[in-house]
Structures are given as structure tokens and as C-alpha cells.
Amino acid sequence: MKTKRVPRPTPERAVRILDRLEEAHPEAHCALDYRNAFELSVSTILSAQCTDQRVNLVTPVLFARFPTAALLADAALPEVEGIIRSTGFFRAKTKSIVGFARGLVERHGGVVPRDFDAMVKLPGIGRKTANVVLGHAYGMNEGVAVDTHVLRVTNRLGLAEGDDPVKVEARLMALVPRERWTRTTDLIIFHGRKVCDARRPACGRCTVFDLCGWEGRQAWASGQGKAPAAKRTGRKPPAARPKKRRRGAPPKRGR
Ligand code: SF4
Predict the structure, then answer these.
(1) Residue 136, CB half-sphere, CA atoms under 13 Å: how many?
(2) 208 lines ligand 1 (CB under 6 A)
(3) Is residue 198 a contact partner of residue 214, using CB atoms and an 8 Å limit?
């Protein structure tokens, strides 16, 4: 019996994939709105477990009130919490962005450093955020920002393996020329959002179908793919809503 061949993750194949994605998605870009490195850092912290669209609704208010790191560093936490509440995890995110602003003021005069190692030492800043900010705000290719889309799509493509962002980033950095690292993130995230969806990948209209290593792609291309079962959250089901009272009916009395 023939065994299926998974294409090898070679630099040539990685570059061919990126060339195709560039052709298919020239509009791929960082979806967060920002005017400088400080704003992009804060927006990227806020985007954890939240959509970029939601972050973009909140940040104009936040940056109108706290336009600089110095002002955000001195902010009252409850006020910041009130502004960013709708992005979720607002207490932890408030601590992160105010802590980041304080670190920036104390160590770098309020200016985001153009240095990866200095960036990741700041509160609230991990490898992903540092790569996003240095790549987009300063045009520096210091690494490949790896989020959930990059993990999923590169695993399916057969360019990387596993769900450890650090290992996947190292693999991509070894495969892709340095000058394309930032663009790699934008293209793969965009492709993951528009085509290679987590539950329903559109393999039938995928520009890199013939270069992809995912064994499920044929089934999805022929309309026979099966979405994975929804993850169990462990939450209790919501309580049943009380029935609506008919118009004109007297209200029920409590016992
Ligand atoms: S062929 Fe399917 S699984 Fe592979 S990259 Fe395209 S959409 Fe994703």
C-alpha cells in the first residue's frame, strides 16, 4: 500500500507558498489601528483573546485620554478598566498596559526601544508583541509573530509542527528569508482568517492547495470535510429564560 507523502518543509516550498499568498492577498496587513509604536504595543496587548475590530473601537478613546506612555503610566486603574472593559480580561489587561507604560517611562524615557531583547523585558510584552511592534512600527524583521492562525496554518501546510509558538517561530525563521519575516505573519494570519478557517477551511479555493501538506484538504475541497466537534468549555448551560407573560395577563404573584 502506498503511504501518503507529506511535502518536506524546505525553504523553496516555504518561499513558493509565500509568493502565492502574496499574489492572492496583497491587501494583507496588520489589522490594528495605530499611529506609533507605543499605540501598536498597547493595541497588541489588548488584542489577546479579542478581535482586532473590537480593539480598534476602544483604542481611539483610550489614546485620546492617554496619548503618551507618561500619561498612561500615571492613570488610575479603574478609569482604564472602564475604557477597555469590552476587550475582555480587562483587569489583567489594564495591569499589563499600565505596567508596560511605566516600564517604558522608567527604562526608555517613554519611547518604545528598537531592540527585541529590551522589548521582551518590558511588562506585558512577549515575543509575539515584540515582533509585531518592531516589524510594523519600525520596519525591523526580528522574528515571525506566531498567533493561533500562524500555528494552525503552518501546521496544516506542513511548514511547522506542534503548538509551541517558540519552536514554530524558530522553524519559520529557518525557512523564510529574514526580509520576509514580518510579511510572513501578515500573509499567514490573513490566509487563516479568510481561507484556512479553523473549523471550515475553504481548501477548494485555496491558492496553495497543491503545496499544502494537510491530509484533510481533499475532503474539504470536495465538500466532504467534517468540522471538529466544538470544544467543551466546562461551563454550565445557561438557565432557561422565564416565559413571557401574555399581553393583558395578570402578573404572577410570588408565594
Ligand atoms: S489547502 Fe486547505 S488546509 Fe491547506 S492551506 Fe489551503 S485552506 Fe488551509
Answers:
(1) 27
(2) yes
(3) no
Q: Could you write out the three-class secondary structure of 218-254?
A: HHHHCCCCCCCCCCCCCCCCCCCCCCCCCCCCCCCCC
Q: Catalytic one among 33, 52, 147, 197?
A: 147
**Pairwise CA distance, residues 75 & 101, whole Å:** 10
pLDDT band at 4 (very low <50, low <70, confident <90, very high): low
CATH of 11-28+146-217, one of 1.20.140.10, 2.40.160.20, 3.90.950.10, 1.10.1670.10: 1.10.1670.10
Query: pTM of the prediction?
Result: 0.86
Q: Which three cell numbers stand for residue 151?
A: 500555528
**How many CA atoms lie within 13 Å of 87's alpha carbon, on the beta-carbon side?**
28
- What residues contact residue 208 under an 8 Å CB cut-off, 6+ apart? 17, 20, 21, 157, 191
